[in-house]
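Module 6 notes. Inverse folding takes a fixed backbone as the condition and produces residue identities as the prediction. Think of it as a translation problem where the source language is geometry and the target language is the twenty amino acids. Below is one complete input and output pair. Work through it position by position during the lab.
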């Protein structure tokens, strides 16, 4: 039923790129640390960079657990499941890294997301994941669900922020600069999105 893949290409790549939502799972090294599982969406915020590397945009939110866990240990699993068409679940297990706004690689990575107005979403980082294990499973128990549209609420909330007000917002949140377990999270102050 399940299959292991050597690379992200062909039908596998098409399947991943067609899904409207995916999930990320990370955890700290501490055995009693908080495991984090996050849904990710927004059309155009995910990209396959090459046969073993994917990336997604990390937008403003009320915590930074994924960023904190990746800074500590780099472990991450991404999962897509088919809600329409033939049943399928794909997981990419690998090593992730948050590339922050002041990283020299940031502008070039951002070019992989031409369909997203990053100013409207409070972009914090680009998460780059290198696959170590790519596998699928049947997905027989995943229900059929229909996609209608992306929710406009995230853009409505964060498009009114500039870099300075976004930085103030992050400073007010308890789990942005550090995780629930006290690991370093998003580096603050927030670097400008574009140099002036």
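Target side of the pair, the amino acids:
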């Amino acid at each position: 039923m399940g299959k292991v893949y050597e690379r992200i290409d062909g039908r596998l790549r098409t399947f991943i790129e067609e899904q409207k939502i995916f999930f990320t799972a990370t955890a700290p090294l501490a055995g009693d640390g908080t495991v984090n599982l996050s849904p990710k969406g927004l059309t155009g915020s995910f990209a396959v960079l090459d046969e073993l590397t994917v990336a997604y945009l990390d937008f403003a939110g009320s915590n930074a657990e994924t960023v904190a866990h990746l800074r500590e240990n780099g472990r991450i699993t991404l999962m897509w499941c088919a809600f329409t068409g033939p049943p399928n679940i794909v997981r990419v297990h690998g090593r992730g890294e948050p590339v922050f706004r002041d990283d020299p690689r940031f502008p070039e990575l951002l070019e992989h997301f031409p369909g997203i107005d990053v100013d409207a979403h409070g972009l914090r980082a680009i998460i780059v994941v290198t696959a170590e294990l790519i596998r699928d499973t049947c997905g027989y128990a995943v229900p059929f669900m229909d996609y209608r549209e992306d929710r406009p609420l995230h853009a409505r909330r964060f498009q009114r922020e500039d870099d300075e007000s976004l930085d103030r917002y992050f400073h007010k949140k308890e789990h942005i600069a550090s995780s629930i377990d006290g690991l370093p999270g998003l580096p603050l102050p927030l670097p400008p999105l574009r140099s002036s």
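Reference fact for the lab report: The chain has a mean pLDDT of 95.
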